Amino acid sequence: MSDCFLPRLGGIEIQLAELTRMQRRSGHHVEVVTATPDRDGRCAVATEVPVHRVVAPLPWELPVHPRAGRHVARLYSELRPDVVHVHVGALSPFAWAALRVAERHRLPTLVTVHSMWDPGTAAMYRMLDLGAGWRDWRVVCTTVSEAAADPIRRVVRGRIPVQVVPNGVSTALWRAAEPPGSDQPGSDQPGGDQAGRAREVHVVAVGRLAPRKQPLTLLRLLRAARAALGAEVRLRATVVGDGPALPFMERYLRWNGMTGWVRLAGRLDRAGVRAVLAEADVFVAPATRESFGIAALEARVAGVPVVAYDRGGVADFVVPEKEGLLARTPSELAAAVVRLARDHALRASIAAHNSASEPVRCTWPVVLAAFEELYALAEKRALPDVP
């Protein structure tokens, strides 16, 4: 159950599509119920599982339905699910309607929260509990990182179990043949064709270009890093993604004379993203409240050193000096990019480690096994008189 699904593209949509495919291939019967329309049938062939779309004729194809509860109750009666797995963001009205109906029918239910609850969101859910009493529902909750789990645990106060199951990644899909940038000589290794010339370092960012992802902060830190490096290192950057912030980014690049070294690549498919990562020296995740950071994880698997904030989900799979560098402020983020650009030896050692090791907790066999255990817990909690 999810408000959003393919053909919309985003973190929840892509991760949910992967999860359903992996569960189907492991022998489960999986069906998706969503409020996202598929007007021209673009994902009908690509989706390996049945998709039920509860769609209302709303502007901008909003994934909302005014009578979602009635339609979901009918689908529950027809599909007779063993477990209902509800995927929610910060605000997911369709999914919450599905959750209420599942609770009313005492269906075993697992809720996965894909977003970070800020203080305002946490306060909203405390208020909702006053009317709906959702903290007493017999559900099981998961989220994708420890950073995302902490505010939820503070709200539920032990009345609902909250566990962390990270997003899954197909490591073979993203694994690079050799560490990116491994053929570049370091500043401590003069000689060869590049003696006396500035080296080039390629910085990459991938994600939806929406304000909450801090795209303008990304451009500012790239500008600051380029200025700090001067003629010592030639910095260039590629930003992959699309979204409402794109026009503002284009304007910023023009006004600051950055169009010659920062490329806005737009939305790319997986093959396109893999090609960009294969040429990357550093990956930057600029969002301050990243519940997980699937693009950063894919870059880490591809062998690219990751630069991100230390208070988001990326910190679950990036250890400083090992998989990348973590920062507390935008200026520290820029400084981390500068450090990796200057220090070829550090960059190469991180790239080699990332290419040679797997983030085991994020691999699909481990993720699927974790959900299996939690489905069993949800079934147990749905039984009468079981806490």
UniProtKB/TrEMBL annotation:
Coiled coil: none annotated. Residues 10-172 form the Glycosyltransferase subfamily 4-like N-terminal domain. The keyword Transferase applies. GO terms for biological process: carbohydrate derivative biosynthetic process. GO terms for molecular function: hexosyltransferase activity. Residues 175-196 are annotated as: Disordered. Keywords: Glycosyltransferase, Transferase. PANTHER family: SULFOQUINOVOSYL TRANSFERASE SQD2 (PTHR45947). This is Glycosyltransferase involved in cell wall biosynthesis. It comes from Actinopolymorpha pittospori.
